[in-house]
Design a protein that fits this description.
This protein has three helices and no strands. By secondary structure, the chain is mainly alpha-helical. The chain has one domain.
């Protein structure tokens, strides 16, 4: 995250992103991988999108950001990216 934010601003930005991506319920859950179970595939995808969006980039390249997500979540992600 950008260094010009103080701790409270950074925490606030992260909490807002968690809410906008509907992943605040798994905020303290390990991501996991092939050897350790963690969040679901949809939660993992939304986490990676949030990780990229949190810094408010001027350019964002995503490869099929809504593949594997249900239609409601896909629409939410498309609106968030827009």
């Amino acid at each position: 995250m950008t260094s010009n934010l103080n701790h409270d601003e950074a925490v606030d930005r992260v909490e807002k992103m968690l809410t906008r991506l509907s992943i605040n319920g798994c905020a303290d859950t390990i991501i996991g991988g092939s050897l350790k179970k963690g969040v679901s595939g949809g939660e993992r995808k939304r986490t990676s999108i949030g990780y990229e969006l949190i810094t408010n980039p001027s350019l964002l390249l995503l490869d099929e950001p809504t593949s594997g997500l249900d239609s409601h979540t896909s629409l939410s992600i498309a609106k968030l990216i827009k």
